[in-house]
Amino acid sequence: MHMDYNFVVFGYDSGFYRTVLSDIMGLNSVIYRDLWGTKNKIAAMIYKLYFTPRLPNRHFPFKNLLYHAACDFHFADNRPICFLSFGRNFHDRTYPFLSYLKQHYPNAKFALYYEDLVETHRHDIGWVKQNFDLVLSYDYNDAKRYDILYYPTPYSAIPVESVT
């Protein structure tokens, strides 16, 4: 299968997402990251603390170093990158990371997929539509209401025999 882009998917550490996206996880053109995370466990812990919306917003003076640690994307070719995030892991704390990615990957495309209703998220849909190249929702009515694209929840084809 040939794709015009390499993909970085900012997902979750949940087994559900790893299962429904399992057919793309092994592709050379896809890097899957948990919670905007990084392979470095210390950086991942700091990231989790910094980006949790439950704690009060605070100034983080070395966030660019943390962003750099999270951006160790290595692909076999130099196709442009498409960054895909899910609605639940995108909020006001991740806005600066989006700006960082746009600055360091000027040819990249950015997509956001709402796997829950738009109104359950803590961000402005107008801002999202201005800052993402593609915005999708699993919910047909939300897609119509917010003038975004409808795309049903994707599921990987997993043979029943292999599930035990």
Automatic annotation (TrEMBL):
Protein name: Uncharacterized protein
Annotated source species: human gut metagenome
Lineage per the UniProt record: unclassified sequences, metagenomes, organismal metagenomes
